[in-house]
Amino acid sequence: MIVDKHVHSPFCPHGTKDTFEDYIERAIELGIEEITFTEHAPLPAKFPEPIPEKDSGMKHSDLPRYLKEAARIKDYFKNSLRVNIGLEVDFIEGFEKETKELLDETGPYLDDSILSIHFIKDGASWHCIDYSADMFGNIISSFGSAEAVYQRYYDTVEKAVEADLGIYKPKRIGHLTLIHKFQKSYPVSQNFDSQVYRLIDKISGRKLEMDYNGAGFAKPLCREPYPPERFARYALELGIPLVYGSDAHQAKDLGQGFEQLLPDYREKVRKSGEK
């Protein structure tokens, strides 16, 4: 394995306290040659975060220290592996202006970043789609069906892909099929493949990348990467860069799900590291 470009850090409010050094040491053990720390960016100040702990993103006051520490680690380990400074930025419908301002502030200090969708809106209410299976059940009750939740999620992803967030908009769309996280408990009767293929077409048209995220395979109610094989193959056919990420929130999870990705993709990654 050569890269892992979706990794969290001790600055993650809902992660562990594993240090940057813990992550780097584990990466070196795994033979990873390039890593991107994509910590959850601060959420807009006026966004009514819908989870009890209010810990989806780091505090804005922690952002300068995160960037400084990541830069220190990048320099310290420069002879061991490449470290990229990044963020995982939430696309939140209606808060595009605030998100652009955040990106304008931090963009000059970033090497890499991801644009993800964790929150969807239902009227005046907000929901976090990946918090827990119980909460996902409540979201279904609010929308009336699991199918309606899926549709709203994919509609929101489309808005994220098309959004004008300025020159520092992340070039990679995070875990495209995150809505599948609880699919074994809440299956849908409607097939959403056509919507996903259309999204991939839009990603291709805008020359964006896709996060090829192994974390879904480790989730007991999902058991597949984000995105699963049929969508990953289609993205590759279109020439979209698929960028592996473990979405690790603790050092021991680096590399998770990599062995469950497309075999030809894994082989290509490994061969690229032998050059």
Structural summary, described in words:
This protein is of the alpha/beta class and 275 residues long. It has a single domain (3-274), classed as TIM Barrel, CATH 3.20.20.140. It has helices at 20-30, 63-76, 96-106, 133-143, 146-162, 193-205, 215-218, 229-237, 263-274, and strands at residues 3-7, 34-40, 82-90, 112-116, 119-122, 125-128, 172-173, 209-213, 242-245. The strands form two sheets. Strands 1-2-3-4-7-8-9 form a seven-stranded parallel β-sheet. It has a two-stranded antiparallel ribbon with strand order 5-6. The longest helix is centred in the middle third of the chain and has 17 residues, at 146-162. The mean pLDDT is 96.
Topology (elements, then pairings):
Blueprint: E1 3-7, H1 20-30, E2 34-40, H2 63-76, E3 82-90, H3 96-106, E4 112-116, E5 119-122, E6 125-128, H4 133-143, H5 146-162, E7 172-173, H6 193-205, E8 209-213, H7 215-218, H8 229-237, E9 242-245, H9 263-274
Helix pairs in contact: 4-5, 5-6
Protein name: Histidinol-phosphatase
Pathway: Amino-acid biosynthesis; L-histidine biosynthesis; L-histidine from 5-phospho-alpha-D-ribose 1-diphosphate: step 8/9
GO molecular function: histidinol-phosphatase activity
